[in-house]
């Protein structure tokens, strides 16, 4: 009795996409952990006040974006740079960068405290993550 073994081809781009998705979600879990500890008064590593929490959330958000969206863009088949998802993600990323730069430079924005800035940044990061994840499933 003879058996044949089928050789399966290792799909590297698919594995990278799956890894990037899990790393992005894991980074999002860290962001949620940061938010909950800041707002309930717990302790988060290297975070001692609202300003350092904003900086940490900014770093987490940029890490989340840089680990997921560009990897998906280069590895995903049929990725369209001029789709509404990509353009809106880029515009939102620029908005987040400007907002984070203003807060980190301590430029006063009317009615925006450091706690409110943390909430605004969190919402913007969440919206961008939803757009990037939606882009995986809807091809426009």
Task: Please summarize what this structure is.
The protein has about 140 residues and is mainly alpha-helical.
Question: Would you mind describing this structure in some detail?
Answer:
The chain is an all-alpha fold and 140 residues long. It has one domain. The chain has four helices and no strands. The chain has helices spanning 12-40, 50-75, 84-104, 114-137. The longest helix is centred in the first third of the chain and has 29 residues, at 12-40. The radius of gyration is 19 Å and the shape is globular. The chain starts with 11 loop residues before the first helix and ends with a helix. The model has no long low-confidence stretch (mean pLDDT 84).
List the helices and strands and how they pair.
Layout: H1 12-40, H2 50-75, H3 84-104, H4 114-137
Helix pairs in contact: 1-2, 1-4, 2-4, 3-4
- The unreliable regions are none
Largest sheet: none
Order of helices and strands: HHHH
Helices, by number, come to: 4
Radius of gyration computed on alpha carbons: 19 Å
Task: Tell me roughly what share of residues is in helical segments.
Answer: over 70%
The number of strands is 0
End-to-end separation: 51 Å
What percent strand?
under 5%
Gross morphology is globular
Mean pLDDT: 84
Count of the domains:
1
């Amino acid at each position: 009795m003879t058996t044949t073994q089928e050789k399966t081809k290792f799909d590297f781009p698919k594995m990278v996409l799956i890894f990037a998705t899990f790393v992005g979600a894991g980074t999002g879990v860290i962001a949620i952990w940061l938010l909950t500890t800041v707002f309930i008064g717990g302790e988060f590593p290297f975070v001692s006040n609202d300003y350092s929490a904003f900086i940490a959330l900014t770093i987490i958000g940029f890490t989340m974006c840089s680990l997921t969206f560009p990897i998906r863009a280069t590895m995903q088949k049929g990725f369209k740079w001029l789709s509404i998802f990509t353009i809106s993600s880029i515009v939102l990323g620029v908005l987040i960068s400007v907002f984070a730069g203003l807060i980190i430079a301590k430029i006063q924005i009317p009615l925006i405290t450091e706690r409110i800035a943390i909430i605004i940044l969190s919402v913007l990061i969440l919206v961008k993550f939803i757009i990037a994840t939606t882009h995986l499933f809807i091809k426009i």
